[in-house]
Amino acid sequence: MAISTADTAPVTTAPAPATQAPPPRWRSREALTAWLFILPSLIGFLIFTAGPVVAAGVISLLNWNLFSAPTWAGLHNFARLGPDPTFWSALGSTAYFTLVSVPLTILVSLLLALLLNQGVKRIAVFRSLLLLPYATITVAVAFVWIWLYIPHDGLVNAVLGWFGINGPAWLISDNWAMPALILMSVWKSFGFGMVVFLAGLQAIPQQLYEAGRVDGTSPWNSFRHITLPMLSPALFFVIVTSVIGSFQVFDQALIMTNGGPGTRTTTLVMYIYRTGFENYDQGYAAAQSLVLFAFIVLITAGQFLFQRRLVHYDN
Amino acid sequence: MSRTMSTNLTRRSVLQLGGLAGIAFAAGCSSGPPAGTATWAMWSSSAAEKKVWEDFGKYVEQQLGVKSVATLTPSSGYPTKLDLQLVSGTASLVTALNGTLIPTYAARGAHRSLDDLIAADPDFKLDDFYETSRKISGFNGKTYAIGFDVAPTVMYYNKDLLKKQGIPLPSRTEPMSWATFRDLAKQLTKPGEQYGFTCAPAIDDLVSWIYCAGGNVMSADASRSALGDPEAMEALQFVIDLFVKDKVTPPIKNLVTESSLSNFMQGNVAFMQNGPWQVVNARKAKFDWDIIPFPAGANGSTPRVSGSSFAIPSGVREGAQLDLAWKLLKTLTSTGALDIYAKAGRNNPARLSAGSAFQPPPDNLGIVQDILAGKIAGGHAFDVTTNWNQVKQLLGQDLPRTFLGQVSVPDAISGLTPRLDVLMRQHLDTTRQAAARKG
């Protein structure tokens, strides 16, 4: 039986003085304590997130090369986006990366989580091992994968060679450079989703499966009608964070291909960085950042709209 | 009672801790070397390099009698860090600049012209610096930096490999022709085992061949791209053929990490195009090697000459701060300091009077100064624009694909030219604006 604070609170019979109205909710002791706890995080958010977003909005309306005094540009920087082929190519590459890497990462994460959830002994060891790629810094991982992808002596092509497949020159191939980056990114990031899914799976009440078994439900139907709906909040969380992360892909592309060959793997964030800090065109870089921000907001808002129909919470 | 006390104490402690943290944060934010400190910024990517700059620091302290504080940053991150320091007003009194970026910084007003300081200082002799170094350190007819190193691109060769093949060693002073070089490279290639030549698949190395053919990246007035001109096309096709048609180069495994030095150090590559700044690394080779002048094209042996310099940011205030900055810059580029640099084998010093400190090995190292002095072969200052990063970026997108045989040279150049022309026009605008701002 749950005990609420109302059950234990002393009964007060004397009416409160008419002149002393209770303080507004936001001034109550609990509210102030809550604000105090939130404050450090809030200050950090305002300084390091909200502030730069507002600053980017202002800078996007300026011509500014970092060193000279900025001049007013109005919406010119946004107008420049239309005829800029590199911007659209970078946007296309980023979308390609997101559309392929996110479903793949989620699939691998979910499969591994389901596997680990089958009463595996020493689950903590496996979980830690599988989480290692996620915990390793991307720069180190990227350099290892550069070696794996070496056309003639690399491990990836050596393994393909065992099956009679002549592997491509991954990172310098027009067609294979992006898939190579995606493969590496999936390997690097599946651990995060796996841990979230595993936690979600372990929170599903076993009675639901037992009830299903009594009704003669097949394993597939059990997965489809019990696991997936019960896991949907975790799935939704992983999809949202993965999509946002994929739109911001930068370091692995910079290290492994530097955006090439041509502009095949030039992502939007890489192009923004180059525009702002190598070409000293801060206004244009800020305009690109805002467009990327708008894309991410729109996509995330769309996902939240869909979740009303597809995500099942306990309540 | 005790509970209240303990609560009060805890609150007080929290407040005290908060206050202390605030003071520490404020102190941290305002920390920096005290006024009168000789601060300078430089790139440094190895322990050996760091040691040289530490010795520079000691030399500065000895000469100026003030504390020297050097901000050392790995070379790949140096420009970004410098930009942020310049913008935030926290840059050092003197900052090192790669020659290719001097017009970029000068045109944007990030660094000040040194002409007034040079004119007011009879002790400072600009004539003691190689002419090419002075050219690299200037923009729009003004001096913006003082060089500390300068060198032409040369050809390294593996003596053991040539001797093993029974091939006579090339002349130490007379540049060989491109045709001879190509024949030698083919002769020395055994596919999958041994290669005739290696260079970086990038514009930085291609320009040497372009200059030797009499071409350039941009027209003389920098108003348009000149890569499509016959001379430049001939050079580009020659180099690409070495990679794609003759296959005398080690296969390219990755465009980002491809390194001519690491190819050469394997010991199975006969010739490497590189600058004398790699002598210090090549000394670790387990085979006998030397350097010779760059092969001569239609325009002779006139490879890229590049260098680096020290400059003073525009943010340095007139008066005592500027006086110290100028003294520091003079000390960092003095014969004494450049002797330290050259003796460590880092590169050829930009001062003629410090030249004797850049000593063999390899045996033929002396040609570096002979080339700069115009006694043998020749050189061409690296011509760059005020938006060189953008030009390099654009060329870095499509040119490497020609090395892979994915795109032909004419197709790559015709695709690049309109975009390069736009960048050239932007460069001219920036140059005009810079001239107007000063004038």
From TrEMBL, chain A:
Q: Which family does it belong to?
A: Belongs to the binding-protein-dependent transport system permease family.
What membrane topology does this protein have?
Multi-pass membrane protein
- Name the keywords, alphabetized: Cell membrane, Membrane, Transmembrane, Transmembrane helix, Transport
Task: Fetch the InterPro entries from UniProt.
Answer: ABC_transporter_permease, MetI-like, MetI-like_sf
Q: Which organism is it from?
A: Kribbella soli
- What is this protein's record name? Sugar ABC transporter permease
Q: Gene3D superfamilies, per this entry?
A: MetI-like
Q: Which PROSITE patterns match?
A: ABC_TM1
